[in-house]
Task: structure prediction
Amino acid sequence: MGPAVVPATRFHIKPQLGLLASLLVVALPDVKAWIAAGEAPAFLRFEGPLYFMGPVWRIDWN
Amino acid sequence: MRRALFGIVASSVVLFAAAAHAEPVTVRFTEGVARGFPVLRSASGEVLAQGDLVQVARANRVENRLVFRFHDGSIYDETVTYDQGGVFTLLSYRVVQRGPSFPETLEASFERETGEYRVRYRADEQSAEEVLSGSFEIPADAYNGLLCTVLKNLEAGQSQTVHIVAFTPKPRAIKMLLSRWRRSR
Result:
């Protein structure tokens, strides 16, 4: 059984840092999430830190 | 040093972020009983941890627990209780992170009904454990552990601002903008 192609919507999750915080934090990694689109939306994948200023990790179903 | 920077940054977020408009997310798709086994990987694709997700729904009240057991023995254990009557409302939250995959050991929780929080925190192995507790005003749109649930419920083309409560180790609300990119994959 090959991998299925699932139509998905990709989301961007961005902390809204103020001026000072933006200067102190050189680069907060992008956080992304993929949600299966349609009448029954479902979580597909998450990419980002699991804790503040942590490394980018990926969560999915395999 | 890391902790000091963490606190400064979090404080700055609170001080300099634009005034937050607390707007809970409308429920379009109710959550039900679910069980899943997510995988946590590094950016390069290496499997770091196996997950176990258990979600139990009784009427409008849902409890969701996600545990990642890392190959190095670390644990990430997050429990969220929320209400889904009309809008998503986070009722209680608890997170435990410990082990070599995490720079700091943390056990933190809060409850909306009482407004109370409790944090057990250790900056590193050499540091003494700190225990903090007190009151905290939890934003109506705080969605710790629920971001992906919230994303499923956004209208097409809708962007949404919500909050995440970060533990620095004191709890602080951080504003997050959720927006669609484009259809892909």
User: Anything to note?
Assistant: Chain B touches chain A through 51 residues (CB under 8 Å). The first strand of chain B starts at residue 34 and ends at 36. Residues 2-16 of chain B form the longest helix (15 residues). The helical segments of chain B are 2-16, 147-152.
